[in-house]
Design a protein that fits this description.
With 299 residues, this protein is α/β, with parallel strands linked by helices. The chain has twelve helices and eight strands. An eight-stranded parallel barrel has the order 1-2-3-4-5-6-7-8, surrounded by six helices. The radius of gyration is 18 Å and the shape is globular. It starts with 9 loop residues before the first strand and ends with a helix.
Length: 299
């Protein structure tokens, strides 16, 4: 069994990074959100992912955020940290300079903008796997990066490196995901990177999700995934359809703008983002508020 394999089954939350109006990280609100999602039953927390606005956060802030997260989470759930980039050498320098005490793994996104070939992607993640002191989960999200890790390359990495323990799949390419699910090693995780597609993928054999929606509704997302993994599909479908409109609306004017609006409505943090990201537009905000209030009344 690969080290760390069982730590990242179920529901992970791609945690937001709250900011004050000044732009500084709001650590008080961040602690409040950490408590909210842990009490809600999530299985692990992803720090400095896409939803955490990692590209806008400085190296010093990232170090402080990792250390704060580890301190406040207190080993109640595993911690996965986003470390990636479009320069392999810079990514390795980041790994070497990051604090790993209390960190259980890294989530590493496909290089963006420079569009490497599949062999380049293989060599990039090979280098990361060999440098990382903790297990690595791959992350393919071509809609954001312009770079897709195809099934053949994913399987090649899965078979060649025991330190690569899974993939967050946000390609929305069902054939690609099915090929990985069909041919992966038995101890290689496949996690949904699309909230709305989580239940169909779990029904097809995936191991869970790294969720944006779980910032707002950790109990409901976690319960849906647990039902799905246990084969209790009727109960899982009920939650899936309850959350579906809310989840889709979170992404209607960009993410994490939608989830930050929802967390402001829930009084968990201020609705501040760092440029070039801006707040969700007024109509989307109103719809998020309406759907959120409806869900809270239902649950």
């Amino acid at each position: 069994m690969r080290k760390g394999f069982n730590k990242f089954k179920g529901t992970g939350v791609a945690i937001v990074t709250p900011f004050k109006k000044s732009g500084a990280i709001d650590f008080q609100s961040y602690e409040k959100i950490l408590t909210h999602v842990i009490h809600g039953g999530v299985d692990f927390i992803v720090v400095l992912g896409t939803t955490g606005e990692a590209p806008t956060i400085s190296k010093q802030e990232k170090k402080a955020l990792i250390e704060f997260s580890v301190e406040k989470i207190e080993k109640r759930v595993p911690v996965l940290v986003g470390i990636g980039g479009n320069s392999t050498s810079d990514t390795i320098l980041t790994i070497h300079g990051s604090p790993f005490k209390g960190v259980d793994g890294i989530l590493s996104v496909c290089p963006y903008y420079n569009k490497p070939q599949q062999e380049g992607l293989y060599q990039h993640f090979k280098t990361i796997a060999e440098a990382s002191p903790v297990p690595v989960i791959l992350y393919t999200v071509p809609g954001r990066t312009g770079s897709n890790l195809n099934a053949a390359t994913t399987l090649r990495l899965a078979n060649d490196f025991e330190n690569i323990i899974g993939i967050k799949e946000a390609s929305a390419n069902f054939d690609q995901i099915f090929q990985v699910l069909k041919n992966r090693p038995k101890d290689f995780l496949v996690l949904s990177g699309d909230d709305a597609l989580t239940l169909p993928l779990v029904a097809s054999g995936a191991d869970g999700v790294i969720s944006v929606t779980a910032n707002a509704f950790p109990h409901e997302v976690s319960q849906m995934v647990r039902y799905g993994l246990a084969g209790q599909m009727k109960a899982a479908r009920s939650i899936h359809y309850q959350l579906l409109d809310f989840t889709n609306t979170l992404f209607a004017d960009g993410s994490p703008a939608g989830i930050k609006a929802a967390l402001e409505i829930k009084k968990l943090c201020q609705n501040n983002l760092r440029l070039p990201l801006v707040n969700a537009n007024h109509e989307v905000y109103k719809k998020i508020r309406s759907l959120l209030q409806k869900l809270e009344q239902t649950n």
